[in-house]
């Protein structure tokens, strides 16, 4: 190594430093640690005086070690420098090689530039060569090219004659000739082949037409259908070197099969009109299974297995039918009959054994896993429409029934009777038949529709009962005002009571097992209200006849003769003779109300203060009259068929005890007993009865009345209805008047 190289290898020494500076901070730190360790070692070795004698040995040993380390370092540095020298030499050789390669590339570039200029001068020659090759190819193919127009015309003739296989073979020969000429001519299209595109399209249309009439051809000309399918399948495997889009006749064939089915069965929707939808659906019910049977028996053998003809037929018919039904739903609202027909057909007939669920159809025809014909929203819409239409129709029919029944009330003849002698009318049976029939029809569609129609029927029945009640009120008002003279007013009221009973007893037909308990509660409440209304109208008619008779009771004549009550009983018996035409239990209710009405009128008459007994004899006569009248009323209503346990006439016997008491000081006990039997008796009622006695002083009256306040209010006896609370009392005398005494 020369001195210049050695100088370059020497490390640089920073100014002001006596030793080479570190190339990195860790070196300086390592040097400091080494010096510290050496000092620590030296101080430990020479700490004892006896060790100082061996100082020379230690110095010589360290000198030897230092020399050894320096030798090793020099060896490493020498080997490193030799490696660097070798690398520098190799780099010099590489530089020389690069310069040589650069000069060679420059020479090659110049040669290539010269060759390009030479090639440009040869371009006309190359064009002449290409033209020569094309002319040579044309000369070889010229006889075949001359026959192309005739071949095109012949192929068109074959297509027109529906000889599809022969036409396809001819077309392929022409296309192969076109491919043979295309490559030699460098992609040049000859005018002679311009007719191949329309010719291929004409053949494709013929294949589509045959596929679109697959059902008819499978029966009449299966060879043509097979030829069309074979052409589509063979063309699917065709490859060409021409830059042409694939014809995809297979997909066009399948699409034509589907479009043909849609055109045959769903080309036109049914026109709005009565029965048009039902006829259309009935035609589909017959046609679709037949179409699937034809596909399985005739069309499928004419097509490859991968066509899955039966499944294709089933899915196409299902999808087309679903689309048609959606279009029908977009029209204005269907009528009730069409709505029911569509729901019942789509939910039951279509998937039933008569159509797609037929056992004669294979598993490929199964459409149950496809989307339903009607969505849940469609079904909801149709059910709501059906219920609304049926409700309007039911409302009209029930109104007609009610109008017809109301027209019967003004007849000259009495109401019709059944063989048992009860008043009878077909109205209840007609009403329930209308409602029950609609519920039954709805059950043929779905449970949800049945529930809706059932709720609607109950609502309409409640409305009908309210309308019936209103009609009775108008009928009664017109009769009582004299605006319409009704010869048989009460019999027709009684007939309506039988109608109510018939409706109530037959209401169970509207409560099948699936109806929740309590669903009929509103209707039952309306029937009960109608019954009360009819009974009230009958009793009002009874009151009109009895009020003139009770105007003379009590009186001196009443004390001495039973004629007044006999007149009441006679007129009551005559009035109630038509009750025999009323069925149980309504007749018992009516008799009980009639008897209660008579007793209430009797009590009202007693409370009017028309009679005051003049002495003990008259009080005895009044008490006896009350007993006889109670017995007479009891016998009257027993004879009419009313059970004695429900009669109210025994109240007269309780009043008799109050009049028959001889010692007025004991009136408090009798009043207390009366209060126990009839808790609704008031001070005014007791005062009116004490006035009838005529011998009660003011102090005795107050003592008797005070007994009403003793003890808690008693409960009414079981089965006994209020009487005295319905009996008005005369107004009390003015406070400025003197109290009445025994001389009154």
* Mean pLDDT metric: 82
Alpha carbon gap, first and last residue = 172 Å
Give the overall shape, derived from the CA principal axes: elongated
| Number of helices in the DSSP assignment | 25
Order of helices and strands: HHHHHHHHHHHHHHHHHHHHHHHHH
Q: What ranges have pLDDT less than 50 throughout 5 or more consecutive residues?
A: 1-22, 734-744
Look at the helices and sheets and give the structural class. Answer: mainly alpha
- Helical content (DSSP H or I, runs of 4+): 55-70%
- Secondary structure tally: strands: 0
Please indicate the percent range of residues in DSSP E strands (runs of 2 or more): under 5%
Cα-atom Rg, whole angstroms? 62 Å
Note the main sheet. none
């Amino acid at each position: 190594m020369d001195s210049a190289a050695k100088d370059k290898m020497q490390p640089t020494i920073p100014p002001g430093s006596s030793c080479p500076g570190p190339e990195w901070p860790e070196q300086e730190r390592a040097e400091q640690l080494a010096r510290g360790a050496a000092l620590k070692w030296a101080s430990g070795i020479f700490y004892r005086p006896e060790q100082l004698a061996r100082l020379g040995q230690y110095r010589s040993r360290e000198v030897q070690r230092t020399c050894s380390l320096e030798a090793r370092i020099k060896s490493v540095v020498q080997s490193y420098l030799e490696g660097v020298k070798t690398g520098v030499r190799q780099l010099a050789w590489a530089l020389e090689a690069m310069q040589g390669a650069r000069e060679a590339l420059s020479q090659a570039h110049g040669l290539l530039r010269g060759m390009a200029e030479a090639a440009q001068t040869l371009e006309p020659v190359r064009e002449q060569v290409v033209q020569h090759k094309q002319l040579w190819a044309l000369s070889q193919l010229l006889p075949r090219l001359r026959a192309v127009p005739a071949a095109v015309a012949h192929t068109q003739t074959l297509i027109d004659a529906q000889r599809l296989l022969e036409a396809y073979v001819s077309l392929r020969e022409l296309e192969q000739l076109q491919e043979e000429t295309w490559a030699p001519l460098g992609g040049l299209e000859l005018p002679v082949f311009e007719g191949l595109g329309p010719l291929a399209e004409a053949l494709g249309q013929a294949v589509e037409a045959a596929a679109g009439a697959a059902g008819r051809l499978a029966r009449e000309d299966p060879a043509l259908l097979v030829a069309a399918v074979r052409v589509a399948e063979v063309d699917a495997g065709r490859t060409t070197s021409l830059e042409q889009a694939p014809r995809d006749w297979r997909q066009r064939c399948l699409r034509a099969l589907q479009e043909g089915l849609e055109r045959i069965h769903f080309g036109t929707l049914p026109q709005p009109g009565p029965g048009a939808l039902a006829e259309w659906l009935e035609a589909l019910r017959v046609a679709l299974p037949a179409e699937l049977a034809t596909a399985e028996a005739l069309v499928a053998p004419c097509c490859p297995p991968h066509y899955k003809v039966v499944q294709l037929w089933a899915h196409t018919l299902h999808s087309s039918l679903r689309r048609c039904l959606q279009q029908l739903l977009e029209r204005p609202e269907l009528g009730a009959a069409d709505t029911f027909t569509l729901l019942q057909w789509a939910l039951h007939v279509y998937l039933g054994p008569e159509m797609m669920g037929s056992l004669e159809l294979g598993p490929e025809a199964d459409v149950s896993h496809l989307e339903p014909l009607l969505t849940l929203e469609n079904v909801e819409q149709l059910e709501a429409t059906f219920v609304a239409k049926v409700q309007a129709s039911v409302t009209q029919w029930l109104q007609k029934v009610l109008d017809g029944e109301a027209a019967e009330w003004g007849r000259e003849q009495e109401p019709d009777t059944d063989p048992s002698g009860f008043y009878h009318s077909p109205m209840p049976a007609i009403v329930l038949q209308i409602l029950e029939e609609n519920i039954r029809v709805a059950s043929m569609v779905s449970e949800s529709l049945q529930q809706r129609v059932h709720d609607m029927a109950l609502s309409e029945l409640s409305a009908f009962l309210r309308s019936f009640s209103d009609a009775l009120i108008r009928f009664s008002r017109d009769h009582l005002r004299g605006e319409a003279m009704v010869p048989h007013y009460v019999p027709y009221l009684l007939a309506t009571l039988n109608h109510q009973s018939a409706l109530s007893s037959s209401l169970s037909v509207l409560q099948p097992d699936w109806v929740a308990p309590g669903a009929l509660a509103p209707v039952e409440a309306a029937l009960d209200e109608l019954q009360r209304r009819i009974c009230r109208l009958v009793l009002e008619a009874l009151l009109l006849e009895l009020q003139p008779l009770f105007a003379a009771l009590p009186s001196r004549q009443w004390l001495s003769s039973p004629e007044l009550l006999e007149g009441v009983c006679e007129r009551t018996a005559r009035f109630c003779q038509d009750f025999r035409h009323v069925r149980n239990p309504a007749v018992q209710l009516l008799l009980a109300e009639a008897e209660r009405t008579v007793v209430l009128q009797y009590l009202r008459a007693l409370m009017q203060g028309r009679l005051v007994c003049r002495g003990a004899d008259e009080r005895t006569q009044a008490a006896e009259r009350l007993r006889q009248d109670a017995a007479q009323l009891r016998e009257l209503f027993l004879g009419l068929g009313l059970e004695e346990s429900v009669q109210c006439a025994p109240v007269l016997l309780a009043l008799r005890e109050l009049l028959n008491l001889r010692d007025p000081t004991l009136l408090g006990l009798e009043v207390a007993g009366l209060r126990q039997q009839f808790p609704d008796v008031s001070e005014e009622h007791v005062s009116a009865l004490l006035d009838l006695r005529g011998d009660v002083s003011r102090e005795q009256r107050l003592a008797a009345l005070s007994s009403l306040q003793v003890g808690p209010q008693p409960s009414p006896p079981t089965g006994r209805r209020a009487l005295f609370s319905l009996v008005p009392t005369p107004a009390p005398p003015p406070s400025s008047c003197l109290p009445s005494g025994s001389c009154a």
